[in-house]
Amino acid sequence: MKKKENTQTATYYSIDFANNKVVMLTKDEKQNSWESIPADVYTTISFNELLNDIIEFHTIFSDFENLKERLFSLLTREIALFHNTLKELYDIINNSSKYFTRYYTDYIYNFFLKERASIKAVILERSLKSTIESINNEFDKIRNAINYEYYFNLKSNSCIQVLDWDDIKYVIRSHDRNEIYHKADKLFSHLFYDLSSIIHNKKLHICKCKYCKKYFFGSENNDCCGDTSCKSKHLNILKNEKRRKKSKGPYDIHITALNDYLSQQTFQLKAIVQEDMYYVNKLKSRNGEFRNRLKDEIERCRIENIIPGHDQDIFLHKLEAEIYIYRTQIADEWKSNNHSNI
Ligand SMILES: [Zn+2]
After folding, report:
1. Would the pTM count as exceeding 0.70?
2. 49 CA from centroid of ligand 1 (Å)
3. What's the 100 CA to ligand 1 centre distance in angstroms?
4. Calpha distance 185→131 (Å, rounded)
5. In whole angstroms, what is the distance from residue 229 CA to residue 163 CA?
6. How far is the CA of 91 from the centre of ligand 1 (A)?
7. Could you read off the pLDDT of 10-34 as tens digits, one per residue?
8. pLDDT (tens digit, 9 = 90+) per residue, 250-269?
9. N or C: which end of the chain has fewer CB within 10 A?
10. Would you give the distance in Å from CA 342 to the centre of its chain?
11. Which residues contact 309 (CB under 8 A, 6 or more apart)?
């Protein structure tokens, strides 16, 4: 968004359907040769960035309404006081990296300046009333223009409108370019209508990512935006859920419990034998045998269509008792061999 003072600028947009992005360009109206426009004045915004930008501006718009009320009370006071308050808008412009937030803020700033300058001292009361009316009307128009629900949540409204506006197009065609730029209206309604039709045809909805909290256009009820880090978090959660479901399945409860018991006994033995792997491996060497005996029992249940229950609990407890005895024997063996060291 480059604006030079004393030059009449116009903003153009081009929608790239295939890559879900919009290219914005603000240029001097008098400059007709598009070839001489430097590449760095083009701003590329993805559909999702645009959505977040408009939602953010929509959210802070109530602050603008409060500021508007404060400015009304300053319209007839010293101009310096009015300008100082108006400067608050410039903090927003300087602190935001969002294209539309910056554009609308800049627009409102200039609009206020113009209206303040139009107040004529001689017929103060009448001109003040018309200034306030004019500012209120402009705020209504902006509020409508940034109503993202209206444009992008196509379930929320149904209406048929006849809109009559000039669509000035710039077509750039050469061997490697084929772009159509539309001249934007000052509040971007054309752009949002064009975009709303694309969003509708692609059957997209306004979604919110539960990981990065950003908004995005996605399939209905989608809660992951698809960015690399969000996607990997999402896949991890799905994997864990799957594992948890699996381990909680009726045919897996006993096997999971036995595995836990074996790890716990190995851990305890390691502490007793002071990490002497000869004894630890002795216990581990029978792990497979204990597991297979339980697996056979569970497999029998599966084949006979029995849900493992009380009988298998007893089977597991017997196995655990056997493991405990075996683990105690190994510990005793270590103690007798290391008697002199204890
Ligand atoms: Zn995300």
Report:
1. no
2. 12
3. 21
4. 22
5. 42
6. 28
7. 899 999 988 999 999 988 877 766 7
8. 888 899 999 999 999 999 99
9. C
10. 61
11. none
